[in-house]
Amino acid sequence: MKFISWNIDSLNAALTGTSPRAALSRTVLETIAREDADIIALQETKLPEKGMTKKQASALSEFFPDYDYVFISSREPARKGYAGTMALYKKGLDLKADFPAIEAPEPMDSEGRMITLELPDFFFNLVYTPNAGDGLRRLEERQIWDRKYADYLSSLDKIKPVISCGDYNVAHKEIDLAHPENNHRSAGFTDEEREGFTNLLSAGFTDTFRHIHGDVEGVYSWWAQRVKTSKINNSGWRIDYFLVSDRISSRIRRSEMLDSGPRQDHTPLLLEID
Fold first, then answer.
1. Which of 18, 28, 62, 251 keeps 20 to 30 A from 214, CA to CA?
2. Which pTM does this prediction carry?
3. How many whole angstroms separate alpha carbon 119 and alpha carbon 123?
4. How do residues 97-106 score in pLDDT, each as one tens digit?
5. Which residue ranges make up each domain of the chain?
6. CATH of 2-130+154-167+207-273 given 3.40.50.300, 1.10.10.10, 3.60.10.10, 3.40.350.10
7. Are the beta carbons of 154 and 102 closer than 8 angstroms?
């Protein structure tokens, strides 16, 4: 099976926006559509609680006519139009969707950060992990989230194997960002966040990219929009992941980043597993 994960940074902007960036986003959607994946996981959709308009839904169906979808959006007490996730899946797939709350500090559980699909042989989880924020103001809450999320994924793993993906908002090792020496107290590379990800992997999960590619350097999934030359100079971070239960890691066939062209921010991830 084939899976794709992408932090889209506003589904509406990608589908119906008129800016040059929106055009770049649609090119990425075309790239994703050509891969013909079984499941596509989107993070940071920024949709209202009621979902897409008819215009947006029509635009999405033009890219993905053979897919159904489920979504969850931010809702009170969280900010409107914030975070949000969506899973598109091939029509006819036998699955049921859940939108778990993990008893994280509010309003994290209300920000539409997670969807879990249960299929006959495995769980598919997509997540948009909270950022520690400017000045690390949300770091303490983020640490609680990391523990709660690891416990949740472990509970699924006890039932059947897990494939999980998304924007985890952490560069795990120094080789996962271009300039580790300058970022040890930056959100996404604090010792606390990195330890949280280590603990997640230690609970029985495999980082599929490292499983396939080892300690290769200079391969990233995110480049800062605010720095115009970040992608040209490949000054990036690897903060997006596909994880699988350790016991199915031998079934991984491909785990890589898809080319998003000149568009900065996140690039899509692809996983193929037998």
1. 28
2. 0.97
3. 6
4. 999 999 999 9
5. 2-130+154-167+207-273
6. 3.60.10.10
7. no
